[in-house]
Design brief:
The chain is an alpha/beta fold. It has helices at residues 27-34, 54-65, 72-75, 98-113, 134-140, 153-166, 173-182, 187-204, 210-221; strands at residues 43-47, 68-71, 86-92, 117-122, 144-147. α6 crosses α7 and α6 (153-166) packs across α8 (187-204).
């Protein structure tokens, strides 16, 4: 039998709508994104744990609305005079400098003031953000909040499929079911597992198997 070729291929993150799997865990958030024309006060906060699909869903919304998707550091460099009509700021909720808070306050006013739309993503709701500028805090707390819940079995399986496809890693349905039944039920664990399977496959020059996955999970438990 010819030796199977295992290649270290580049990771391509798929962020299109067809790549976003909808399940009961995220259906409410997806519906809220689809209804973006009717967001309260023209803004929305998308909340979810690490690797839950916040960035992906922000890009889905950007494709619908013509918005840009920027990090906090990128967004705070925008001149409010040239603010876009629709903007997603990915990764809020952490401590910001005084200058960043002031910049976001003026950017918010510029976008909302012109009838635009603003989407903010974070791992916690805006009431828990450590904002020192009261005017900025009051503005973001006016926004609606959409929550991405922890994944159910169907969603976790779909996430593993997507993460593996991003890495051009082939995982059979049997291997995915085996993993889902034994791993921690979280987005971060799915990402960690797929990265580990990919690395182990490259190291051993072997395709993924149940014993390989069992060994990785046992190492983490230990």
């Amino acid at each position: 039998m010819a030796e199977q070729l295992i290649l270290d291929l580049p990771v391509r993150t798929a962020l299109e709508r067809d790549d976003f799997f909808v399940s009961p865990a995220n259906a409410g958030a997806v519906a809220g994104i689809d209804n973006w024309h009717n967001w309260p006060h023209s803004k929305m906060v998308l909340v979810g744990p690490e690797a839950s699909g916040k960035t992906h869903l922000a890009h889905v919304w950007a494709a619908m609305s013509g918005a840009q998707v920027l990090t906090v550091s990128e967004a705070t460099k925008i001149d409010p005079e040239t603010a876009p009509a629709a903007l997603a700021i990915d990764g809020l909720g952490q401590s910001l400098t005084a200058d960043q808070e002031t910049a976001l306050f003026h950017l918010h006013n510029a976008i909302v003031g012109q009838g635009g739309r603003l989407l903010l993503t974070a791992s916690t709701p805006p009431t828990r953000w450590p904002l020192a500028l009261p005017d900025l805090a009051s503005r973001v707390q006016q926004a609606g909040v959409l929550v991405l819940d922890p994944p159910d079995e169907a969603l976790l399986s779909a996430i593993i499929v997507k993460l593996a496809a991003d890495r051009q890693l082939s995982l059979s349905p049997d291997l995915i079911s085996y993993s889902v039944l034994r791993m921690e039920r979280s987005f971060a664990a799915a990402r960690r597992l797929v990265e580990a399977i990919d690395a182990r496959s490259l190291r051993d020059k072997a395709r993924p198997t149940k014993p390989m996955i069992a060994g990785l999970l046992a190492e983490w438990d230990g």
